[in-house]
Amino acid sequence: MRGPPGNACTLPSVTRVPRAAGLVLILAACQGKHGASPSPSQSSAALAAISAGTSAPAAPAASVSPASPTSAAPSASAAPSAPYVPDAKRYPWLADERDFPKPDSSLEERFPAPPGYKRVAAEPGSFAEWLRGLPMAPEGTPAKSFDGHETLSADDDYLAGVVAIDTGSADLQQSSDVIIRLHAEYLWSRGEKEKISYLSATKLAMPLSRWEKGQRLIPNGPNVFWVVKGKPSEVDHAEFRRYLDAVFNWANSTSLSPRSAPVTEPKDLVAGDFFLQTEEPNHVAVVLDVAEKPSGERVALLGQARSPAESVHVVRPGKATPWFSVRPPVPVLTPHSQALAWGDLRRMTTSAGDADK
Q1: pLDDT in tens, 113-161
Q2: What's the rounded Cα separation, in Å, for the pair 153 and 115?
Q3: Bridge partners of 318?
Q4: Per-residue confidence (pLDDT) for residue 243, from 0 to 100
Q5: Dihedral (C-alpha) 22, 27, 28, 29: value to the nearest 10 degrees?
């Protein structure tokens, strides 16, 4: 997202490509397209502590322990599963002629619930159920930037897997754009195009319906406006993807706040919720799946897409497990962000006009 400063964790190993002027499985995303590069939020010792299930020296109250050292691997006695068949109707980008790794499993298949845990129920047809079926790239796939540079090696201690979805060919789909992309694709797959609308950093509504009418987003100084540039036409998924790039260019983490509502009870955590940090270094973490013990103890998976734009990927506390323990009100620590506070938990509303009602 471009817009004013507010949503990108800058990757030190990748140089940002300037563009014209004009967020618990959790997907994490960092600060905006014009924000300053954040300093590392945790030392290597702290991350080691996370993986080992001990408190980080600098923040003992926010320590996070892996759910189980064996939870990442299915039982050796499990029956062979049927071959994975990608569903391009449910995940429509799979039929696009864009560059993305070809899937070989779903999120749910790749990451079994840890021993003693069971995935929380997801309502059929819900965003949570849709996220659970996200197509995953084959194991051993590294995370890459939009221009093809490797940002995380396949054997990185904190990389659990890469989602099989395109990043785009420009530095646009980064940080909080991830929740917009997933939410919009979900609505598109359900034929609910009238609900697809997001806000620019200047709070301009950017509904897909205006794009269908031939209008396009045009900058004027620090602002952006809709201008008629063509005739109304049917929007296919390829054109929808171009609309999303325009949204990414003008939205940022701060514009997600009025497009979402706070989740006041952590016990209500569901896939699709996200942690929204609007103070620098801004960060977004999207919940993709949650599992629970009969005792009520919960775990979640984490992921992210940083800046410059890179592969949407699942992050983990260490090689032992992809699952993070979540123990409200204790903040959640991730390898590439500041601690995630439960007061920052939000949920996308039905449409851009329904936020905070």
Answers
A1: 999 999 999 999 999 999 999 999 999 999 999 999 999 999 999 999 9
A2: 28
A3: 321
A4: 98
A5: -10
